[in-house]
């Protein structure tokens, strides 16, 4: 039973989770859980709070190598290691009832038969709550862990991803929904006429099928995409049902939203069949001052060595000789990304930051952020929603579990009061929560 | 805290699980659960019964294709599709406290970085209860699902498996047990000196590392092997800690046991560091007659079409024209396996079976079986144990959940009364249950 969209349009909320938080300084925050990467009980507590807050989904990032960063930053980062997504989300499926479970999986370094099986199995185990965040893996170090000397080229990665999607969805459709007859009397368990052998042979992949799993409860697990490049956007417009966006401002959000929905219109997809959810780092306090103090305390947890590494990368210029407590000096233009550099210079000016503060800010988190009270945060979210800059957000919490508790206890009720967010789950599957239709089986359309 | 072996030596018991049972007729047995392949609640109920029975481990088979069988058999078989092992066992980890969780994974059709991560993650989630059943995948249809035109040759599969094992265990050792410092004061999260970059380049695999997971609680998840060929036995003697055997008689069991332990002695491994657990199909009744009636009723659930296909394969001769209700006719010798043929002919003679009964027996289950009362079954198990034909068994249940309930309620107490089986778990990890030492880290031996 798909959820009825209320008037006004409601936000969709995902939680983009790293066990300790995405902020690099979070593990040092008082009351944080520095050991959460391998502490399953902590994860269970967190996802239950998210479910209490009626979140659409728990999103799990994934990386196929220790993140490539200088040793000075590596040794200070809690983001180096954590649970593998399928094992974690399956275990969390058993600890929850309704919340969606979105796992990241790479089309560059895995096989479609494995991916199709695991997501189908997770969808069965969770009663229709699985989603697949398709990534092509940009970290070149991953290639070295999978037998390659160098990374697969960007365009090739995306061509393979497109074909991979076709194979995986074709494998999910191996059995008609009514294929499993289980007629004890006649002794017929499965009707072979309702089983399809895919027989795919394409540019990159050759996969016979059928999948050895019944069709998932959702038909297909929900398709998520986060690519930002031209081929990434096109793949999303053609295949995704959720985009995990990275727009840093509402203006960028509107441009991205319009671009994707226009691409969809060109290929005849209904705009509502894809939800755009930019990542948002949300710090909530009872006053703006309190929120800013939390933010400053978090940033202070970023060690100068790792902050300065991030700043150097963003500037395309070695920042280690700058005076930490002085303002950002004028620096010459370089070949590095001009957009990134300009953004950093503007940020330093706007907030009047020292080199140290700037380094710590960049070393912590530097995308879209909402720092304020429940009311001001709800105002911002509402503005994004009504101006078609997004269909909701993927929330990143500043530190865990405190930052998550604050969001669920303060921001969620404020959004509910305004009619901008559900007060209870209406359906049981992730498709129900997101208002997405169950896809027909391409081989057994009836 | 490893369990103290009692005197007399105690049995180790695994449960070799297919959700509906391994017996092909089981889904038609009254009170069976024909829908268990994708019914997570049923699986939860079963594993909780196993844990109540103090089983060492739940073993999950795995196949990377729909099993290759004639359509006449396929349509009547419940073994075609079921959950994927990592998603299932992770979900079951959350529903249990002590029982081990052994997943089958192929070294021929997967990448060591993925395998190392998933087992490490399952070990963390379950608090040290994971085991890896290493298979090289004998079903040639699997190759067609992974981009190959034909199957990888047997010897090459085993050479790759050996190298794969070295890489996976090397990746598990990426971090010293004390690598994660998490010193909030100084801001050091991980000590890079206690992280090892594997840098493996071998005949089949090239993997840089490190793994992006902390060392598993058990050091390494328990290594299981089921290969029966010469290279399969050698791989087991070199690497395995549990062998899932297939000896059909106690004499075969003793020969196999002696062979493996001799291979271990030759390479300097202690014999107790590997437990040999043959698969045993156990049908328990309150009397021998009752047990045999259960068995006959199960076999009667095997449809004649699929039974006759199994019989033809076993004989190497088309049996479809035989009189179903007559005795097995004399058949000419063929090129097919002589051992298999002789075994079938002997079985028909010994039990005076008609062609139909023989076909149904073979179509159901045809390896080592124990059909009797709790006492007679315990007698048989004790005989295997004391004569060094095995260190325990992997139990296969005739139908579920009833056959499992009967085993736990009747056979387990009888074994416990004789001091042949634990009455409670002494430790918390699968290594503890099996009495296996935690391996040292090869890069950080201190
Ligand atoms: C919010 C967000 C989350 C992402 N999560 C992952 C991830 O978990 N794993 C991964 O390999 N890449 C991840 N990416 C990277 C994207 O998949 C993509 O590679 C990147 O945005 C660059 O875009 P492009 O691949 O289209 O060039 C993420 C990107 C964004 C914006
Ligand atoms: C009890 C038992 C269970 C097995 N389970 C699996 C399995 O789950 N998946 C698989 O691919 N092979 C499985 N096998 C097959 C073995 O891994 C192996 O391929 C087979 O015994 C033939 O031996 P060989 O590979 O040494 O020639 C199993 C074998 C036995 C005896």
From TrEMBL, chains A, B:
Top-level taxon: Bacteria
Gene Ontology molecular-function annotations: monooxygenase activity; oxidoreductase activity, acting on paired donors, with incorporation or reduction of molecular oxygen
The Luciferase-like domain, residue ranges: 31-383
Keywords, ordered alphabetically: Flavoprotein, FMN, Monooxygenase, Oxidoreductase
TM spans (from-to): none
CDD domains referenced in this protein's UniProt entry, alphabetically: Nitrilotriacetate_monoxgenase (cd01095)
Binding site for FMN: 62, 104, 154, 158, 229
Similarity section: Belongs to the NtaA/SnaA/DszA monooxygenase family.
Protein's name according to its UniProt entry: FMN-dependent oxidoreductase, nitrilotriacetate monooxygenase family
């Amino acid at each position: 039973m798909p959820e009825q969209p209320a008037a006004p349009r409601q936000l969709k909320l995902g939680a983009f989770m790293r066990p300790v938080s995405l902020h690099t300084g979070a593990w040092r925050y008082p009351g944080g859980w520095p050991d959460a990467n391998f502490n399953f009980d902590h994860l269970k507590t967190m996802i239950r709070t998210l479910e209490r807050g009626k979140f659409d989904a728990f999103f799990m990032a994934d990386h196929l190598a220790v993140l490539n960063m200088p040793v000075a930053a590596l040794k200070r980062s809690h983001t180096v290691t954590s649970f593998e997504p399928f094992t974690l989300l399956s275990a969390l499926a058993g600890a929850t009832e309704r919340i969606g479970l979105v796992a990241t999986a790479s089309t560059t370094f895995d096989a479609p038969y494995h991916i199709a099986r695991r997501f189908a199995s997770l969808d069965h185990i969770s009663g229709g709550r699985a989603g697949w965040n398709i990534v092509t893996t940009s970290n070149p170090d991953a290639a070295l862990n999978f037998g390659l000397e160098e990374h697969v080229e960007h365009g090739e990665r995306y061509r393979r991803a497109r074909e991979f999607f076709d194979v995986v969805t074709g494998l999910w459709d191996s059995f008609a929904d009514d294929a499993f007859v289980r007629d004890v009397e006649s002794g017929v368990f499965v009707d072979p006429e309702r089983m399809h052998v895919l027989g795919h042979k394409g540019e990159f992949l050759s996969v016979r099928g059928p999948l050895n799993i019944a069709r998932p409860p959702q038909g297909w697990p929900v398709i998520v995409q986060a690519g930002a490049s031209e081929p990434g956007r096109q793949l999303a417009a053609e295949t995704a049902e959720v985009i995990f966006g990275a727009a840093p401002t509402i203006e960028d959000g509107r441009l991205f939203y319009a671009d994707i929905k226009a691409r969809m219109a060109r290929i005849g997809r209904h705009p509502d069949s894809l939800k755009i959810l930019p990542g948002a780092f949300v710090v909530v306090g009872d006053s703006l001052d309190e929120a800013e103090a939390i933010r400053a305390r978090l940033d202070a947890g970023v060690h100068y060595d790792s902050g300065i590494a991030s700043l150097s990368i963003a500037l395309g210029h070695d920042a280690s000789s700058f005076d930490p407590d002085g303002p950002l000096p004028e620096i010459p233009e370089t070949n590095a990304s001009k957009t990134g550099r300009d953004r950093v210079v503007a940020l330093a000016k706007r907030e009047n930051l020292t080199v140290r503060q700037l380094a710590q800010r960049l070393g912590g988190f530097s995308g879209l952020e909402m720092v304020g009270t429940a009311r001001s945060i709800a105002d911002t979210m509402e503005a994004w929603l009504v101006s078609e800059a997004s269909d909701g957000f993927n929330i990143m919490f500043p530190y865990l579990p405190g930052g998550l508790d604050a969001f669920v206890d303060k921001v969620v009720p404020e959004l509910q009061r305004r009619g901008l967010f559900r007060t209870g789950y209406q359906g049981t599957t992730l498709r129900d929560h997101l208002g997405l239709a169950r896809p027909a089986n391409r081989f057994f359309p009836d």
